[in-house]
Amino acid sequence: MRKVVIAGGTGFIGEFFQKRFQELGYEVSIISRQKQHIHWDDKLSIQETLEDAELLINLAGKSVNCRYNGTNKQEIMNSRITTTKILGEAVQSCSNPPELWINSSTATIYRHAEDRPMTEADGEIGSGFSVDVATKWEDAFFSFRLSETRQVALRIAIVLGKDGGVMTPYRNLVRFGLGGIQGSGKQMFSWIHIEDLFQIILFLREKKHLSGVFNCSAPQPVTNRELMHTLRKELNTPLGLPAPKWMLEIGSVFIRTETELVLKSRWVIPDRLKREGYNFRFKTLGHTLQDILHHE
């Protein structure tokens, strides 16, 4: 049986991937800190699991949906760097290592952009804690020189899907009448449907000449104003109070998160995927939200 290993496979994306790979007939192994899975401390079992695997997908890392205090910052950084190094060393130790190692990264690596879109070739790397996490994560991943394993880093935009992620808080905002613009409303919102993220992995699995960095975002990003308008329309809620920046700063303290998650302008274009011929199933936000909100 074909085998895929998902590291950090217990979250919203990992559970979706596990289900979809099993539907395709794969044996799926999960590495996590949960006792029913292969544990990160068990390096011998990790190596044994990676032997003869077709695909390794690393999604591991503490959620960034928290306050950026000293403890959380350290956990966010270490949870990505340490797990990536464990996997790299395990792959190096394999007699028959995975053909392809896909490591997640983030579209947040680019600067706040309201002036032009960011592609892999000409995107400008930003500054600040979130960008430091992304760059060090990619550096740790590409520090491994693997002769038998192709390496791909996915700079993933905000993932939209039915069973988790950001859709739950966005839906609640709209339903409670708070679905207006956030901040100026001009910041760009780049997203990807979770099914497209899965299909991109299958696409890259077949395109054996491809490696390096890929932006994973739908080809038609929108402004925050368009995002909230489309959400209100799909949820049949015509009015939504706006949330100015000062209000978001206060609110983020109480719900223990950071305003960067909604105020940073992520204008990311999947240039390499489009040039290589990947055809997105969910190109527009309207189509994406219709699928998520009305096909449950």
The side-by-side strand order for the widest beta sheet comes to 3-2-1-4-5-6-10
The CATH first-level class comes to Alpha Beta
**Would you report the number of β strands?**
11
Element-level helix/strand string: EHEEHEHEHEEHEEHEEHHHHH
Poorly predicted runs are: none
Strand content: 15-25%
Query: Describe the biggest sheet?
Result: 7 strands, parallel
Q: First CA to last CA: what distance?
A: 31 Å
* Count of domain modules: 1
**Count of alpha/pi helices:** 11
Provide mean pLDDT, rounded: 93
Q: Structural class of the secondary elements?
A: alpha/beta
Question: What's the CATH H-level superfamily name?
Answer: NAD(P)-binding Rossmann-like Domain
Radius of gyration in whole Å, from Cα? 19 Å
Summarize the structure.
It is built from 11 helices and 11 strands. The protein is an alpha/beta fold.
Could you describe the 3D structure shown?
- With 296 residues, the protein is an alpha/beta fold.
- It has a single domain, classed as NAD(P)-binding Rossmann-like Domain (Rossmann fold, 3-Layer(aba) Sandwich).
- The chain contains eleven helices and eleven strands.
- It has a seven-stranded parallel beta sheet with strand order 3-2-1-4-5-6-10, sandwiched between helices. Strands 7-9 form a two-stranded parallel sheet.
- β4, α3 and β5 form a beta-alpha-beta unit.
- It is globular.
Task: Please outline the helices and strands.
Layout: E1 3-7, H1 12-23, E2 27-32, E3 38-39, H2 43-50, E4 55-58, H3 70-93, E5 100-106, H4 129-142, E6 150-156, E7 158-160, H5 167-175, E8 188-189, E9 191-193, H6 194-206, E10 212-216, E11 222-223, H7 224-234, H8 245-254, H9 260-263, H10 271-276, H11 285-294
Parallel strand pairs: 1-2, 1-4, 2-3, 4-5, 5-6, 6-10, 7-9
Antiparallel strand pairs: 8-11
